[in-house]
């Protein structure tokens, strides 16, 4: 029985080695290819511009809210001033109440708008990433078929514990630059 297992193991090993010798393997650094793909670069520029405009809107609104705060402080000073008559204090208190309500309502509406805008940008980035990855997959598959690769591995992927999926490969198997060149035509 031990002899049978030993012979079986040798046969499986021999077959595996002969099959491995016939396999044509390619390796791609998918992360590098993604980052250097012209569509990724273009989309990053669009997103950066949108984020810049969004940041400017945030700063403008914060300045507006700062104006509310200054008015509130001014109203509070008037309420504490003993020289101000009771009728004026009542009027100031009403204005203060209205200002606080208006400011609170605007702040809540603005926070909701910010949340929606951030969510929309995240969704847009996710959708664009999917489109870019689909394009990349198509190019990788095309090259694999044209050049007879049977296996294409991603050298930028990690396994459990952030251990690289591909620990070592001979650089002659790296097709990253040719993939990038083809994608950016």
Task: Give a structural overview.
- The chain has 185 residues and is mainly alpha-helical.
- It has one domain.
- Helix content is 76%, strand content 4%.
- It has helices at 2-22, 30-36, 38-80, 86-147, 176-183, and strands at 25-28, 151-154.
- A two-stranded parallel sheet has the order 1-2.
- Helix 2 (30-36) packs parallel to helix 5 and helix 3 packs antiparallel against helix 4 (86-147).
- Residues 1-15 have low confidence and may be disordered.
Q: Which strand order does the major sheet show?
A: 1-2
Unreliable parts:
1-15
CA radius of gyration: 32 Å
| Average of per-residue pLDDT values | 83
What sequence of helices (H) and strands (E) makes up the elements?
HEHHHEH
Oligomer: single chain
Q: Report the major sheet.
A: 2 strands, parallel
The total count of strands amounts to 2
| Domain module tally | 1
Structural class: mainly alpha
Percent helix, as a range, is over 70%
Gap between N and C termini:
60 Å
Question: How much of the sequence is in beta strands?
Answer: under 5%
Number of helical runs? Answer: 5
Q: So what's the overall shape?
A: rod-shaped
